[in-house]
Amino acid sequence: MDGETLYSIGDLARRTGLTVKAIRFYADSGIVPPADRTPAGYRRFPSDAIARISLVRTLRELGVDLTTIRKIMEREIALADVAATHAEALELQIRVLRQHLAVLTAVARRGSTPQEMTLMHKLARLSEAERQRLIDDFLGSVFDGLRDHPVLGAVTRSLVPEMSDDATPEQIEAWVELAELLQDEDFRASMHGMAQDLVADRAPHDTTGLIRILAEAVRAQVTPALKAGVEPDSPEAEPIVTVLAAHCADILGSPPPSGPGDLHLRLAARLDQMNDPRRDRYLSLLAVVNGWPAPECLTPAFAWSATALRARPGAAPRGFGRRC
User: Fold this and answer.
1) Rounded Cα–Cα distance for residues 296 and 292 (Å)
2) C-alpha span between 165 and 76 (Å, rounded)
């Protein structure tokens, strides 16, 4: 010990920013032992005590308990192993805190009842296996009896939410609302009807189907008309109706028995079913959960198209009965 600078508890307190009481506690616990004592019994600490106290302070701020800290100081366990264990524990805590934040944010925004809050909390805490069972049950209802149809493979995959372990509060909140939709029996029935129509309204060897063709046509033809302020019953809407009807005729292959007017009404009915706002909400929430770009909302365009078709049910679609 000859020539080594020794420090009093007061010296360590000033150099480390801890209180004398805290340093005395660490000394009594054997975590920062003194090197010597004065004739009057006052403890004196070696210069490395400053580094030890700084390490202890850091570990305590990171949530490491005193027993583990003592073992680290005595080299009974490696600091790297302790850090890895605590990092895993913190990841779990962060995940739980994100869930709590998402639920509380949703409750505050919705003005939820205690019962609704309990349900949201339960949905947010579902395990990966429980989430998958809920998703599989939903898809089983939507594609009941249609699973093996070739046109539905890509559609099924496009409807699957996949929440990552490091999901943001926004993604967790979106999942909670999505999980509520997954359990909505009326929504399931609506989606099942759309799946049946997608299979039924197809040309031979076609893998697209009328519904997807219609959606693309509405996006390309009707969205610009809406932005331009074209009214659905105006003469300017006529060419758009003709294009939509021609797509339908091309898929179906021949005019319906009651003539072109029935085709327009059939198209309008398909658009009404596609215009379920819950479907748009599902796709929007799905994009948030999966980290996809936000989908374009076609609700106004579907409504415009259905109105335009019903405004002129007797107009013959160009190319009726023609195959491209």
Assistant:
1) 12
2) 33
Query: Span 38-42, mean pLDDT?
Result: 88
Burial (CB count <10 Å: 0-12, 13-18, 19+), residue 303: middle
Per-residue pLDDT tens over the stretch 102-134: 888 888 888 989 888 888 888 888 888 999 999
Whether 271 contacts 306, CB under 8 Å: yes
| Single-letter amino acid code for the residue at 144 | D
Kindly indicate the confidence band of residue 261, based on its pLDDT and cuts at 50, 70 and 90: low
Instruction: Decide: 35 and 24 in contact? Cβ < 8 Å.
Output: no
Q: What is the CA radius of gyration of the chain?
A: 34
Residue-wise pLDDT for 219-235, tens only, equals 888 999 999 999 999 99
C-alpha to C-alpha distance for 103 and 176, rounded to whole angstroms: 8
> In residues, how long is the chain?
324
Scanning the structure block, which residue is given the tokens 């296996």? 129
Looking at residue 141, the DSSP 8-state letter turns out to be H
Residue 167 CA to residue 102 CA, distance in Å, equals: 10
Q: Which residues on neighbouring strands pair with residue 225, listed in sequence order? A: none
pTM higher than the cut 0.70: no
Q: Give the up-direction half-sphere exposure of residue 268: CA atoms within 13 A in the CB hemisphere.
A: 17
**Is 2 buried (19+), middle (13-18) or exposed (0-12) by CB count in 10 A?**
exposed
Element (H, E) at 266: helix 260-274
Q: Give the phi and the psi of residue 45 in degrees, each rounded to 5.
A: -115, 145
Residue 159: partners with Cβ closer than 8 Å, 6 or more residues away: 139, 142, 282, 286
Contact indicator for 175, 163 with CB cutoff of 8 Å: yes
Q: What is the mean pLDDT of the chain?
A: 83
